[in-house]
Design goal:
By secondary structure, the protein is mostly helical. The protein has helices spanning about 45-75, 80-95, 105-125, 130-155, 160-185, 195-215, 215-225; strands at about 1-5, 10. The chain binds zinc ion (ZN).
């Protein structure tokens, strides 16, 4: 069914002129391809342009804070914290846009390096940077490794959700333990494993139960039937 473009009356397929208002009707012959596509395809902003936009957006607060800092103190003081934070943010969010299909491992490595650099800067500016190398940097890199491990586990195609969750829960417990080891070495020079044991034990139990369920499909089905 077609309609007159002037008065809107419905028209039969054979009409060449609108019977109501007399407007000439132009009909598209059947089987001719459309001059325009039915749907519009949105052209995304190119990735490198997004990265450039990010730089411009971050440059604005960086320069404003610099101006305020200089006017206030006559020298650069707290604005370095802002710059460091912005450098981290740029690395986390916009740097990946500069590359075509960047490797996750390299992105996490770059983020860990920049975060460590920021910690060094904070240590330097606050005049108490003894904690950065023995504490801040190892925890940052360990977090990077943990993030990468979770990313890899989630992307394993053959494993079930239950199995992946079990591995992630177990690794979270081990990660907490490793963090405590670094803190203990920094504070006391020897491992104490005080607060991680109450964290690790329940996680190991939950993870073990999930592993068991994964391999006992009968029990898994029965449990699902009982719960849902
Ligand atoms: Zn008409």
């Amino acid at each position: 069914m077609s309609y007159c473009s002037k008065c809107g009356v419905s028209l039969s397929a054979t009409e060449a002129v609108c019977p109501l208002c007399g407007k000439r009707i132009y009909t598209r012959p059947v089987n001719t391809p459309r001059a325009y596509p039915l749907t519009c395809e949105a052209v995304p902003l190119s990735s490198s342009r997004t990265a450039l936009m990010g730089l411009i957006i971050l440059l604005f607060p960086a320069l404003c804070c610099f101006a305020v800092d200089i006017l206030e103190d006559r020298f650069i003081s707290w604005v370095m914290y802002i710059w460091g934070g912005e450098a981290c943010f740029y690395t986390y969010v916009f740097l990946p846009k500069l590359f075509n299909k960047p490797k996750t491992s390299l992105l996490i490595l770059a983020s860990s390096i920049v975060t460590s650099g920021y910690l060094f800067l904070i240590g330097f500016l606050s005049g108490s940077g003894q904690w950065v190398l023995p504490l801040g940097v190892p925890v940052t890199f360990m977090s990077g490794v943990m993030t990468f491990a979770i990313y890899r586990i989630i992307n394993i195609k053959k494993a079930s959700q239950l199995l992946k969750s079990a591995v992630i829960i177990l690794s979270a417990g081990l990660f907490a333990m490793a963090v405590e080891l670094v803190i203990d070495m920094y504070l006391y020079g020897a491992p104490t494993f005080g607060w991680t044991l109450p964290v690790l034990l329940p996680l190991v139990c939950i993870s073990a139960a999930m592993f068991y369920l994964e391999y006992d499909s009968e029990l898994k089905k029965r449990l699902l039937r009982t719960v849902f």
